[in-house]
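Need residues for this backbone.
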């Protein structure tokens, strides 16, 4: 072996030892910082502080349709499970969003929501993808919009539908 490369190997080994010394192993085998973490620091990552820009009219929930959600405007597709939902009934435009999953192909999800929205006077905007993701936009009048995006994996479609509509339309 060439002895001129040994100082470089020694330096590399020293750096590796320093990196390993900075971490300790947990019983699960995952590396953690060896310095203790304070309880306050841990709690701050578990609790989100209110956003200064959040509207007092905003409500959201996980695993259910939030109270007041405009289910006539954005109906839940038959067989779908709600992942999360939110609703903000602001003074000029209301904002509603729903994330769900369903055991149906992407085309079925797009077809269901296209029919539901067109039945309420929305018009589909040309285009049906953004990159590799199915995405469809709808407009009604001058300022009401809805977007639907769908990703399918292993026979399950996860969809997000969001609307910005006149408050009187959010029923």
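Answer:
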């Amino acid at each position: 072996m060439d002895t001129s490369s040994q100082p470089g190997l020694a330096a590399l080994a020293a750096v590796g030892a320093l990196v390993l010394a900075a971490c300790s192993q947990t019983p699960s085998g995952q590396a953690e910082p060896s310095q203790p973490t304070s309880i306050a620091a841990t709690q701050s990552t578990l609790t989100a502080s209110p956003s200064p820009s959040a509207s007092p009219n905003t409500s959201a929930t996980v695993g259910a349709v939030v109270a007041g959600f405009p289910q006539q405007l954005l109906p839940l597709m038959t067989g779908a499970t709600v992942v999360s939902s939110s609703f903000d009934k602001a003074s000029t435009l209301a904002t509603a969003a729903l994330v769900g999953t369903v055991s149906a192909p992407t085309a079925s999800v797009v077809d269901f929501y296209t029919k539901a929205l067109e039945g309420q006077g929305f018009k589909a905007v040309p285009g049906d993808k953004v990159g590799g993701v199915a995405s469809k936009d709808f407009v009604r009048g001058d300022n009401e919009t809805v977007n639907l995006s769908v990703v399918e994996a292993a026979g399950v479609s996860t969809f997000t539908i969001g609307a910005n509509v006149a408050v009187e339309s959010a029923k």
